[in-house]
Amino acid sequence: MDRTWRAFYTKPRHEIKITNRLDEAGFSVYCPVVKMKVRWSDRWKKVTRPALPGYLFVHVTEEERIMVLQDKSVLNSVMWNKKLAEISNEEIELMKLVLDDAEHVETTDITEGDRVEISRGSFTGQSGIVVQVSNKTVRLRIDSMQCDMTINVPLVRIDKIREQMGITERS
């Protein structure tokens, strides 16, 4: 039988544990994860969390799919239009490509008036002043382009610039 990527529903916060168990059993498993920088009460901590909580992808035959469902933390196969959901190799590869470099940053230390530099995307290397901060984006005024241009940039694409006694450092 041919193998195909199947999606499975999991118990909450069991994605990584299931991935490890199925991997040890010889299955080809993909659990998309992202690195997050979260603020604890006393410090910043980088943690890895599932990008799609409650989902897991396994490359299986029909017989192996039934075996995967025997895991105590796997709830069910994902269905689409009353059929088992099939995920193409291209879709899995695209997820891997997109999420390999993804880093979601939860931060509260960027405020209006801060000078920041864009670290990724079309405006890489440009610096600007923070005009507005929302949940996941920052509105910047880019003054180096000889005009007052305001753009929205995802938080994950900016670094705060600290200027101390004439020395510029990026955080």
List keywords for this structure.
3 helices; alpha+beta; 5-stranded antiparallel sheet; 171 residues; single chain
How does this structure look, described?
With 171 residues, the chain is α+β, with helices and mostly antiparallel strands. 18% of the residues lie in helices and 45% in strands. It contains three helices and 16 strands. The protein has helices spanning 15-24, 62-69, 89-100, and strands at 4-10, 28-30, 33-39, 44-50, 55-60, 74-77, 79-80, 83-84, 86-87, 103-105, 115-118, 127-133, 137-142, 149-154, 158-164, 167-170. It has a six-stranded antiparallel sheet with strand order 14-13-12-11-15-16, with no helix packed on it. Strands 1, 2, 5, 6 and 9 form a five-stranded antiparallel sheet that branches. Mean pLDDT is 80; it is low at 104-108.
Report the biggest beta sheet as strand number plus sense, adding barrel if it closes. Answer: 6 strands, antiparallel
In N-to-C order, the SSE pattern is EHEEEEHEEEEHEEEEEEE
Helix/strand-derived category reads alpha+beta
Strand content: over 45%
Query: What general outline do the C-alpha atoms trace?
Result: elongated
Quickly describe the structure.
The protein is 18% helix and 45% strand. It has 3 helices and 16 strands.
Topology:
Blueprint lengths: L3 E7 L4 H10 L3 E3 L2 E7 L4 E7 L4 E6 L1 H8 L4 E4 L1 E2 L2 E2 L1 E2 L1 H12 L2 E3 L9 E4 L8 E7 L3 E6 L6 E6 L3 E7 L2 E4 L1
Parallel strand pairs: 3-10
Antiparallel strand pairs: 1-5, 1-6, 1-9, 2-5, 3-4, 7-8, 11-12, 11-15, 12-13, 13-14, 15-16
